[in-house]
Amino acid sequence: MIVRGVLQFAAVNVNVETATVPVVGMMDYYRVEGDEVHEVAVGPVHAGIIEPGHFRFQCHGENVFHLEISLGYQHRGIERHLLGGPTPRTVHYMETLAGDTRILRNGVHAANGYGTMIYWYSNTIYVFGTDSRWWTWNGSGWTVYGPSQPGTSSSGGSTTGDGSSPPTSSLVVSPDRATIPTTTNAIVDSSLATWTLASDTRVLRNGVHAANGYGTIIYWYSNIIYVFGTDSRWWSWNGSGWTVYGSSQPGTSSSGSGTSSSGGSTVSGDYSVSPGDDIQAVLDRAAEGNTIVLRAGVHRMQTLTPKSRQVISGEPGAILSGARRLTAFVWDGSYWSIAGQTQQGPATTLSDTCTAAAPLCAYPEDLFIDNVLLKHVATRSELGPGRWYFDYAADQIYLADDPTGHIVETSVTPTAVAGFANSVTIRGLVIEKFATPTQQAAVKGQGSGWVIESNEIRFNHAIGLRTEAGAIARNNKVHHNGAMGIAGSGSDILVENNEIAFNNTNGYNAYWEAGGTKWVYTNRLVVRGNYSHDNHGPGLWTDINNINTLYENNRVEDNDLSGIFHEISYAAVIRNNTIARNGRVRPSPGWVDGAGILVAGSSDVEVYGNTLTDNFQAIAGLEGHRGSGIYGPWVLQNLNVHDNSVWQLASMPNGAGRTGIIDTNGTGAFFNNNWWARNTYHLGTNPYYFIWMNKDINEATWPTYQQDTTGTFIR
């Protein structure tokens, strides 16, 4: 029997030896010719596969000499639907393309994973992917393991996604809320560092005294090491040192702590969502008034738009993150880099938005290593420890720090929760690392009556939380956001018992808009019982057309500029607050910035019952002649300051520590019914602690202007 092979184009036979490039539009196939050789054609559609296919069998009796497979595809308009994405339906569309290799977790496609084998080894899920590499499940997505099956002795240089060898340590990350000494003697964090507590209260990391830390409790919560220090305050490990957290234990629901616990080990609701699942799909399926529980773990890069009266509640350890984890860094001999970073949000171009030290503050992308923010620089030549560079044109991120063994994340998604639904509740979540554009917030309910309570809102690029009409924000910890902790506008807003701290990490200009808080155009705003401290800007700030404002029982300390600042607004009461050491950067002696309480261009303000200690200025008024607002002129008049206790004992330059008024154009403010009465002053060594008629005066001259004629002055 003579058999020969022929490469055939449609109906045209071409000899294999002399075949040239196929003609466009014609499908080539290999055909065997000879005595009793026959062809079996199957297709163009075969029931055994999902997509169309054409099979050609070249046979001689029962022997198959050759099988040629030509696969096609069904045109479903998928490309058209994907344009402009991603959208909440993107993953669904992708799943419909080919469902025979999807990896399912609880029946849901797990973080877009595809593979041909799932392997459970040493308490870890591994998948042999369709790219012929092994991948590990990290709780919310996939990390490259390497070409060899886990647990085998095969060599071959398998690598993790960051270029290091596969982990060989037997250490396992400790469970959330592990505590020394009550539940364990050692804690292993996510970088596999081991924490212990020495008998002399030294805090040890891998057996070495950790940045001179001392404490009586070590606590592992939400991927952060906390220590209860010998000064009776909680401190958090920032990767190289310690940062003050506050007086209450992280993850508790005690009043005023602003922490993120929902109060128990489990949270009940109508629906529950695991990390990697589509939260919005569940919100869409749920009815108004239903409760949706986010299970413990990291829920990445999703924007939620709830229905009215829905409750989004988190189990302890539930994190809603706007960041992508980066694992595939490559060393180029000088820097570590990672490609394929196509995210780029809108950047504000106003000239006064950023400080000179942080010219890229308005770009919404941030980068974190082990929850520590790196400084964004404009060129590769500026790279160094603690800095990162984003080549937007090349979609490439560069680091000088070695990412091996660390958690590296970059913010991608601009918003966590938004929408125009009413009476939504957000409770018990950590909300972090959203790429919020300038003046935008990670949580920004635009409907009325939202309740945001017992959350930890942190590491978002611009603002953490925005409050609108009828909103209640209470018992939250809002810290380390890039521009500001809380902002908002509208009527009947209540902000109580929150901790607002360390905000404006990205170097926004605090005179423009940055610091602890800022509200505009509010009516009947109540700010009560909050602890606002260590913000790079004012602590609590109402600016532009606020009326009937109440600040009471707040603790406002160690902010860069003024403690409580009421600016170009109207009627307000500021009472019974404890205000200390504000104006930390000592701005402009002889001016009014950095006051414990500053009232600027605002009428009908009463200030009483407050205790102020060593602020850069004490209680100050400013008439700046700023024009008019919606309720009349912005003018400093009817300011009534009485029955406060002012302590100014710290050493300060001349022109600091003063109480009184400055008028930038004339003396009108001194005749606009602005009065101080029955206040008590504890004064230090400066010669002048008061200012009136635009000149510094002492406590003997102050009463001659009919100010504090019944006041008390103690030197």
Task: Name the features.
single chain, mainly beta, 13-stranded parallel β-sheet, 4 helices
Query: What share of residues is helical?
Result: under 10%
Structural class: mainly beta
The average pLDDT value, as a whole number, equals 86
Strand order across the biggest sheet? 20-21-23-35-38-41-44-47-50-53-56-61-64
Can you count the helices?
4
Task: Give the strand tally.
Answer: 68
What are the segments in which pLDDT stays under 50 over at least 5 consecutive residues? 7-25, 153-169, 253-265
Using only C-alpha atoms, the radius of gyration works out to 32 Å
Notes on the protein architecture:
The structure is a single chain. This protein is mainly beta. Helix content is 3%, strand content 42%. Among the domains are: 3-71, no CATH class; 78-146, no CATH class; 178-246, no CATH class; 323-411, no CATH class; 538-714, no CATH class. It is built from four helices and 68 strands. The strands form eleven sheets. A 13-stranded parallel beta sheet has the order 20-21-23-35-38-41-44-47-50-53-56-61-64, with helices on one face. Helix 3 links the parallel strand 20 and strand 21 (291-294).
